[in-house]
Structures are given as C-alpha cells and as structure tokens.
Amino acid sequence: MLFSIILTIVILQRLIELMVARKNERIMLSKGAFEAGSSHYPYMIALHVSFFLSLIIEVVLFDKEISLIFPYLFTLFIFVQLMRIWCLMSLGIFWNTKIIILPGANIVKKGPYLFMRHPNYLVVCSEILVLPLMFNAYFTAILFTLLNFLMLSVRIPTEERALIEATNYSEQFKRGFQHQDIN
C-alpha cells in the first residue's frame, strides 16, 4: 500500500514536470532557443519509463517489503524532492527535460546552481538509487543507477558543449561561482 502511494505521487510529479517542461520549451523556442542532443532524448525517456516498470515489477512480483532503514531512506528521498523543486524554481523557464539553449543568455547561478553545475542530475541520480532501496528493490537500484550514469555520460557533455557555444557558460566558470543570475 505504501509503495503504491509513493509511486503514484512520484509518477504524478513526473507527469506535471513534463507539462511544465513543454510549456517552458514553447516559451524558450519563441525567444529563439534551440534544442541540443535531441538524438539521445528518446533513450532518456525510455530509461525513465523502464525504471518505473522495473521498480513496479520487482516490488510487486517479488513481494518486496519496505526496507528496515525506510525512515532514513524516506527522509533522504524527501530531501531529494525538495532539492528537485529548488532546482526547478531556480531555473524557472530555463528548466526542461530536454536540452533547450537560449543563445546569448547568461547561465543561472542562483539556488543550488551557486554550488554546482548540474544539481538536477544529482537529484535524479539520488532518486534512482533511493526510491528502489526504500522497498529493497536492489536489482532496479543497481541496474538503473548504472544505466543513468551511462546516459549522463552522453547528456552532460552534450549540454555543456551547447552551453559553451551559445551562452556565457565557459566565461562564468573561468571566474568561478559569483552571484550572477540569468535575466
């Protein structure tokens, strides 16, 4: 029952995020933005859909129980969800599930982006590990952590290359993290 409730909430959250991403994409494209890395995007979607299917199959088919350390993992999971919201709010219309780049824009350097380049990817990595561990779904946790690292090994360089070519990304990281926001 607890698994169903948590999973339903997470899936609804993802569906809402996809709607926000589509809205942001329309806004950004209307301002002259372009999409980078579109060739790997279908694989990323497949990875995330497969993650949820694997999690459901492993927990339901193998009758997995909640972890003995569930309260700690759930606390970490809630923290990760708060980080996710902080990332989305910090990026505003620049947040997307696709790599959408607005030429000439200044990069966002507020919220968690003051401290690291890609905090949203840290959130995704953490969630892909923690959510299955809450229900002892070790196969899903290990397999999709590895697959996600493989995906990010393509996605992050693609995103950074596009940011370097079209924004002030490399200039900002030469100077280090200063208090500059995108406007």
Automatic annotation (TrEMBL):
Q: What keywords were assigned to this record?
A: Membrane, Methyltransferase, Transferase, Transmembrane, Transmembrane helix
Which is one Gene Ontology cellular component term of this protein? membrane
Annotated membrane-spanning segments are 41-62, 69-95, 121-147
Write down the superkingdom of origin: Bacteria
InterPro entries xref list:
ICMT_MeTrfase (IPR007269)
**GO BP term (any one):** methylation
State the name under which the record lists this protein.
Isoprenylcysteine carboxyl methyltransferase
Kindly indicate whether the keyword Transmembrane helix belongs to this entry.
yes
Principal localisation: membrane
The signal peptide, as residue positions, is: none
> Where does it reside?
Membrane
Lineage summary: Bacteria, Bacillati, Bacillota, Bacilli, Bacillales
Molecular function GO labels? protein C-terminal S-isoprenylcysteine carboxyl O-methyltransferase activity
Membrane topology, from the record: Multi-pass membrane protein
Indicate yes or no for the key word Transmembrane.
Answer: yes
